[in-house]
Write a structure and sequence with these properties.
Elements lengths: L6 H17 L8 H22 L8 H24 L6 H23 L7 H20 L3 H19 L2 H25 L3
Helix pairs in contact: 2-3, 2-5, 2-7, 4-5, 5-6, 5-7, 6-7
């Protein structure tokens, strides 16, 4: 028996196959802007905190850092809702990535806020570097080489910051955050796959 399908049925089948392919994609699909914002913020606030600790900036200037943190959170909420409401389908990796991202960032935030006596000063910045590396390597495990390279950059900055002169450690950590996290976001935004 030779069964013919109608044009409408063929379109439905093609659409179904496209949905399956989209959901199994290893591409991040969206979210590069989150990496840019949070990478830039984490690098900036690390240097800012160092400048306050070394008395090159007044302690009161940290309130501007808190305002910047709130702006980054607001951006993430607004942009996250816009992505959720968009017509664009998210891949399985995209959905899993967002869960890993929020879990990792949430835990790092709680540790930084609740365990500041255990992780004072640059140790709290190192926690953010560690969290950023986890997120990048998670994406890298799914075949994204840009994430792997950027994750390595973050880890290398952690190791180098441990061995340089103490007054340079904050700058090395910040450079790793910006090159790794922010750099990955930019690479995702400009790379079409």
């Amino acid at each position: 028996m030779d069964e013919q399908i109608s044009t409408e049925q063929a379109r439905d089948h093609i659409e179904m196959v496209q949905r399956i392919i989209a959901e199994s994609s290893q591409r991040l699909c969206g979210g590069g802007e989150f990496f840019v914002v949070w990478g830039a913020f984490s690098g900036l606030i690390t240097v800012w905190g160092h400048l306050v600790a070394t008395r090159n900036l007044p302690q009161s200037s940290m309130w501007a850092g808190a305002a910047l943190l709130l702006a980054c959170i607001a951006f993430s909420i607004v942009r996250g809702r816009a992505l959720r409401n968009s017509e664009v389908r998210r891949s399985l990796l995209q959905r899993e990535f967002l869960n890993v991202l929020w879990l990792t960032v949430g835990l790092a935030f709680v540790v930084d806020i609740a365990a500041f006596n255990i992780f004072p000063g640059l140790a709290s910045a190192a926690i953010w570097s560690f969290a950023e590396a986890i997120v990048l390597f998670y994406i890298g495990l799914h075949g994204n080489r840009r994430a792997q390279v950027c994750g390595i950059a973050v880890v290398v900055s952690l190791v180098v910051a441990n061995f340089v002169q103490p007054h340079l450690s904050a700058y090395v950590l910040a450079a790793g955050m910006i090159a790794g996290y922010c750099g990955f976001g930019i690479a995702e935004l400009v790379t079409a796959e």
